[in-house]
Design a protein that fits this description.
Elements lengths: L2 E10 L2 E10 L10 E6 L11 E3 L1 H9 L3 E2 L1 H10 L17 H34 L2 H27 L1
Parallel strand pairs: 1-5
Antiparallel strand pairs: 1-2, 2-3, 3-4
GO cellular component, one term: ribosome
Organism: Stakelama saccharophila
Protein name: Small ribosomal subunit protein bS16
Length: about 160
Amino acid sequence: MALSMRLSRGGSKKRPYYRIVVADARSPRDGRFIERIGSYNPLLPKDSEERVKLDGDRAKHWLEHGAQPTDRVARFLDAAGIRERAARSNPKKGEPGEKAKEREEERAEKLKAQQDAEAEATAAAAVEAATETPTEEAEQVAEATAEETPAADAGEEKAEG
């Protein structure tokens, strides 16, 4: 019979509470088990002593009889100093997938094209401003003020009469 040390879920919805049990590997998660050797309450703070309770002697007994712990239970056993857990190495864990890399490249290309267009527009505006002489600009300002002044005088005359 293949034995496993695993978590059996209890508690209500969104309020989990787990029992650490030794069970036949073929039995359901929350089903029949051979022995309860501890408990785990994930709602408690990580530094709380009540978060993980484990009977170390019984855990050693079942490990000697061939029980295979799940990853989470193996972490508890390692923290309790009962069984050494091998460190895992997954160097590609934080890397985005191929599609995400493609989308990032497309965004970078669009951003670069937008920046190039803005730079060209700025350069064109600078060239236009450089080609326009100050006298032409002064003439335009003078014409604009001359057009506004007679209109303002005419409005004042109507108000007086």
